[in-house]
Amino acid sequence: MTMMTDTAPGAPRGNHFAMHLVVALVLLAIGGGYVLYELFTFGKVQFNTTNAGIFWGFAIVVYDYFLLTSTGLVMVASLYYVFGLEEFRSVARRCLWLAFAAIIGGVAVLFLELGNPFVAIWATPLNLQTASPLFWKVLLVAAYSALLALVLLGKINTREDKGSVLMIPMTALAFIVTLVAGSVYGMMAMRPMWFGGDVPVVFLIESFMGALAFTVFFSHLKNGFNHGNMRPETRLLFEGTLARMFAISIGLHFILHAGRAVTGLWSNAEGMQVWQYLVANPLFHFAMWGCIALPFVLMVLKSTRSNGMIQILAAFLVMVGLLISRYEFIIGGQQVPLFKGTWAPELLHYSPSVGEWALLVLAVGLANSVYAFAAWQLGAEDRA
Amino acid sequence: MAKWGMVIDLETCTGCQACTTACAMENNRLPGENWQDVLFYSEGEYPHLNLSWLPRPCMQCENPSCVSVCPTKATYVDEGTGVVLVDWNKCIGCKYCMVACPYGVRFYMDEAPVVQPDVKATYPGDGKRTWNPPFKMPDEYEDASKGIGIQPKGVVSKCTFCYHKISQAPEGVADLDEDNPETKEFTPACVRVCAPKSRFFGDLDNPDSYVNQLIADKGGVRLKEETGNKPKVYYLSGGGSPVVPGNRSRRS
Questions:
Q1: How far apart are CA A314 and CA A56, in angstroms?
Q2: Is the distance from CB of B106 to CB of B157 less than 8 angstroms?
Q3: Any B CB within 8 A of A164 CB
Q4: Residues 173-192 of A with CB under 8 A from B
Q5: What ipTM describes this predicted complex?
Q6: What is the largest CA-CA distance in chain A?
Q7: Order of strands, edge to edge, in the sheet holding B4-9?
Q8: Which domains, ranges and CATH numbers included, belong to chain B?
Q9: Identity of the residue in B90, B91, B110 whose CB atom sits nearest the CB atom of A44
Q10: Are A63 and A112 contacting, i.e. CB atoms less than 8 angstroms apart?
């Protein structure tokens, strides 16, 4: 069956989805196998979270990373499906499938982290704790995921790329889920590192920026990392509008990130001491300069943003940098114990255990498996 | 309906941790994961040192942030007593309450032990129980809907003000005092064992209660008032001196 893709006519179609699926399944087997072995053999004692103060560990970092990537990808898809920007047509369908893959990967990790995930399924909707941002987050993520699945159901093995009426509520949900995810942290007045009305907005910008990075990366992956394989209109998008949007969002992210770091270093509120630790850590500077500033420059300069390999590099750096930023934000907000005696450590130290790293491998493997299978068998990469 | 509250007199507290031990025995707590803890503060440099301490149970807040954030209403305020409880049948183990509690008095037991050796491994649990301690409360006291008993896997626990005791107290009683034979059995374990009698437990809604008298006469204060959580645990510090000892923030 011959189908059109965003691969240039005459160029090798990069029909490598079966191989992509195999690699993803291997990752899933390694990550998932290790995590399940640990959980069934030892339980969550293998995770490095403790009652001493780090309650949300790397699992929550991974979950939020994948969740926000997913909602951001729906926002990117909505540029064509809802807002009618025709030039985003070539990536819109891919973004939807990637969004679905990301939410599956993220929620799988959350289920492995929660104490009683199956109780959450009934206890959350039935008890209507409307004061809790987490109540809304669970409900909204469930509605968002269901709607996304419904929209994609209508796109299986069709080449039509018309916008569905469901895209409007789904886009609205993507925005709201992202804002509520930020509120889960932003409402914590007792944790100054997290607290603030700007946090949901920061999440929104990061979500969109991350999604653009994933769009760039997976579009190139689809074309075998060969810029020349792309259709002219797709190439134009990546060198023009999308690259500019990418640069603007990275710039905003840089400003917000730097702003929070500077105000954090200045503040003497209890809990803000963690900024001194974070800024003294080379990881912070790798994320700040290597994964935010550098991609920004690469996407601003015309000579570099039109180079396919540079686009891939910038996207990859942003993907890594966002994970580091998410890690620093979530873990950093808990590193200063809220109420302890002076015999407790001034700053709690945390690093993910092997089992927690395996959760990331699991999420990457699962998300890629879903996407690769959809591209291989369900027409995720086909379009009219 | 009583609104039970506690008064802790820091001027007489010796930091002996009998309260911590009694609570651990009464409520099957793991070593190092004490619902009732005593925090120690060392101030100054040798030889000008000062050691001080602060007993810290759950503050049983009137406006608890842990209740607001719980997505399943597993954490709730008991209407009859005003005590903040956890329904283990509804707790999903998301730990948002632990994140939101300004006092750090909530506990999840599925993780690495705070202190070694890991007694959970020595006394492994059966069924849903996280562990099976050699000391434990009678089975008839256990009530998962109120977070009383041996903590199951995957849930968060906290101080219940010894709900299994205080809920049996005679109606209308103003104070639960270990020196009063009529209320002795209903007095929380940490109050009952306090050797210097630094702890007092009574009905904050009863104008005749001794706890209200102490709060009024000795200027009882609450921790972290700025959070708006309105704790029902009051501290007497002799006026003037800060409740939380020492220079908590040691930022250089």
A1: 29
A2: yes
A3: no
A4: 184, 188-191
A5: 0.92
A6: 70
A7: B199-203, B4-9, B233-236
A8: 4-236 (3.30.70.20)
A9: B110
A10: no
CA of B100: which chain A residue's CA is closest?
A188
- Distance from the Cα of B224 to chain A's closest Cα (Å) equals 9
Size of interface A-B (CB pairs under 8 A): 143
- Report the distance separating Cα A356 and Cα A340, nearest Å: 26
* CB hemisphere CA count around B227 (13 angstroms): 26
| Contact (Cβ atoms closer than 8 angstroms) between residue A235 and residue A227 | yes
Looking at the predicted structure, is the pLDDT value of residue A177 above 50?
yes
Q: A48-352 adopts what CATH topology?
A: Formate dehydrogenase/DMSO reductase fold (1.20.1630)
Contacts of A270 in chain B (CB under 8 A): 248-249
Residue B74: name the closest of B155, B177, B133, B159 by CA: B155
Which residues are CB-neighbours of B226 under 8 A, at least 6 positions away?
A: none
For B28-60, what is each residue's pLDDT tens digit? 988 888 899 998 888 788 888 888 889 999 999
Dist CA B180 CA B6 (whole Å): 17
Q: CB distance from B39 to chain A under 8 Å?
A: yes
Chain B residues inside the 8 Å CB shell of A339: 39, 56, 102-104, 223-224
Closest by CA to B68, choosing from A184, A177, A201, is A184
Rounded to the nearest 5°, which phi and psi values hold at A21?
-65, -40
Chain A residue nearest residue B95, CA to CA: A55
- From the list B90, B98, B102, the residue facing A119 with the nearest CB is B90
Maximal CA-CA distance, chain B:
53
Residue A279 DSSP code: H
Give the span between the Cα atoms of A39 and B154, in whole angstroms: 12
What is the percent of chain A with per-residue pLDDT over 90, rounded to a whole number? 77
Contacts of A124 (CB under 8 A, 6+ apart): A135, A138, A139, B71, B72, B92
B219 at A interface, C-beta within 8 A? no
Q: CA-to-CA distance for A326 and A333, rounded, in angstroms?
A: 11
| 17-36 of A, contacting B, C-beta below 8 A | none
- How buried is B138 (Cβ within 10 angstroms: 0-12 exposed, 13-18 middle, 19+ buried)? exposed
Nearest to A132 among B54, B71, B98 (CB): B71
Q: How high is the pLDDT of residue B110? A: 86
Asked if the C-beta of B49 comes within 8 angstroms of chain A's C-beta atoms, the answer is no
The two structure tokens encoding residue A43: 């339980």
Are the C-beta atoms of B7 and B234 separated by less than 8 Å? yes
List pLDDT tens digits, range A208-259: 999 999 999 999 998 888 888 888 888 899 999 999 999 999 999 999 999 9
Q: Do A119 and B40 touch (CB under 8 A)?
A: no
SS3 state of residue A345: coil
Cβ(B35)–Cβ(B107) under 8 Å?
Answer: yes
Q: Flag whether residue B65 sits within 8 Å of chain A, measured between CB atoms.
A: yes
Q: To the nearest whole angstrom, how far is the Cα of B109 from the nearest Cα of chain A?
A: 8
| Torsion angle, alpha carbons of B55, B56, B60, B61, to 10 | 110
CB-based contact B41 A346, cutoff 8 Å: no
Phi, psi torsion values for B158, nearest 5 degrees: -160, 170
pLDDT of residue A3: 43
Q: Indicate the pairing of strand B50-56 with strand B37-43.
A: antiparallel
The 10s digit of each residue's pLDDT in A270-286 is: 889 999 999 999 999 99
The CB density around residue A293, as the number of other CB atoms within 10 Å, is 18
> Are B54 and A341 spatial neighbours (Cβ–Cβ below 8 Å)?
yes
